[in-house]
Design a protein that fits this description.
The chain is 32% helix and 24% strand. By secondary structure, it is α/β, with parallel strands linked by helices. It has 2 domains: 173 residues, 3-Layer(aba) Sandwich (Rossmann fold); 203 residues, CoaB-like (Rossmann fold, 3-Layer(aba) Sandwich), CATH 3.40.50.10300. Helix 1 runs parallel beside helix 2. It is globular.
Length: 401
């Protein structure tokens, strides 16, 4: 997927997808999603709730999908009245986008009070939902409980994203953009190059406490690691993201484990092993204070001297295990990139290392990367980080397979 949106090369040829649309202003995005699904080769059947029809008409989806739109359990045109049973029997996926807070609640409690809810309950295929709601509704305890139940029931939750909302507020709750949802589907359907693989990714900075209010950290935004986690999930992998402190949203289909210090990150990584692939993207602090003060250190004219000790090298430790995962490292250098990166790859015995110049990447939304492996170096021209992540995952999959 060379495009930043990742839609040109997504193939869902002959996949039968039931697109469920529930009530909310984000229903207008479902029309674009329907168009993209058809363009990707999917056979799309649309089912709408009564509330959804207040925002977008069934005729719109009929024109985009090329098929009649399902709106009622009591539609006589379905013959034996069992459309809610028959439709999902040969479907590959039911995708509800947008999924309102009300619909998620009904789904979590096994309600079957309209056509779409009944389809989901009577399904014989995978189910994914793309939530869309006001930020306070998303943050509500009831919504959290419902989502926990849905995930436990095997439902894939895509998003939501953060940003401006139709109500004028800003925060989590926006439905993912249609292209983002589309990019996640091959992985959900087991059609990606990492399907069935388990991938462990570290991302973001670490924070090493000096006292209760101060610490040592770095300028890593975590954007590259999060993009790689998303790209791996899109490729079909089961992804665990061990993340240092960031303000980034969890990518669709990814499980995140939050940590703070390098020691916390090491412990979390070792707990999450075994994994077939380990991608160490996090900017882990090389040193930490030998002991954090229990109370805030008062300012003094005499200055402050810190005694620093080395942190564990997580990547080296994992790569040196008796049965190591396919381990991928990152080298952020400020000069002599090729020499330093290849030396690091050989020292840690890594099959793949990603190099970049720190001054060109940290905090930015784009990157210029070079991949180093046993066959040599492979430059990746500057692009947004998600595009670079997808390129990396394709290269990794080729080496792994």
């Amino acid at each position: 997927m060379e495009s930043g949106q990742g839609i040109e090369t997504v193939s869902l040829a002959h996949k039968k997808i039931i697109l469920g649309v529930t009530g909310g202003i984000a229903a207008y995005k479902a029309a674009e999603l329907c168009r993209l699904l058809v363009k990707a080769g999917a056979i799309v059947h649309v089912a709408m709730t009564d509330a959804a029809q207040q925002f977008v008409t069934p005729l719109t989806f009929q024109a985009l999908s090329g098929r009649p739109v399902l709106t009622s359990l009591w539609d006589a045109a379905s013959g034996d009245g069992m459309a809610h049973i028959h439709l999902s029997r040969d479907a590959d996926l039911i995708l509800v986008a947008p999924a309102s807070a009300d619909f998620l609640a009904r789904l979590a409690h096994g309600r079957a009070d309209d056509l779409l809810a009944t389809l989901c309950l009577a399904r014989a295929c995978k189910l994914a939902v793309a939530p869309a709601m006001n930020r306070e509704m998303w943050a509500a305890a009831a919504t959290a409980r419902n989502l926990e139940q849905l995930r436990a029931d095997g439902v894939d939750v895509l998003g939501p994203a953060a940003g401006e909302q139709a109500c004028g507020e800003t925060g989590l709750g926006r439905m993912l953009e249609p292209a983002e949802i589309l990019a996640a589907l091959p992985g959900l359907l087991g059609a990606g190059p990492l399907a069935g693989r388990r991938v462990l990714v570290t991302a973001g900075p670490t924070f090493e406490a000096i006292d209760p209010v101060r610490g040592l950290t770095n300028r890593s935004s975590g954007k590259m690691g999060y993009a790689i986690a998303q790209a791996a999930a899109e490729a079909g992998a089961t992804v665990c993201l061990v993340s240092g402190p960031t303000c980034l949203a969890v990518p669709p289909g990814v499980r995140r484990v939050d940590v703070e210090s390098a020691a916390d990150m090491r412990d979390a990584v070792l707990r999450e092993l075994p994994s077939e692939v380990f991608i160490a993207v996090a900017a882990v602090a090389d040193y930490r204070p030998d002991a954090a003060a229990a109370q805030k250190i008062k300012k003094s004219e005499a200055g402050l001297t810190l005694n620093l000790v080395a942190n564990p090298d997580i990547l080296a430790e994992v790569a040196a295990l008796p049965e190591p995962p396919f381990s991928v490292g990152f080298a952020a250098e400020t000069e002599q990139l090729a020499a330093h990166a290849e030396a690091k790859r050989l020292k840690k015995k890594l099959p793949l290392l990603v190099g970049n110049l720190a001054q060109d990447t940290l905090g930015r939304d784009s990157a210029e990367l070079v991949l180093f492996d046993e066959r040599g170096s492979h430059p990746l021209a500057r692009a947004d980080k998600l595009t670079q992540a997808r390129r990396l995952i394709r290269h990794l999959a080729t080496l792994l397979n």
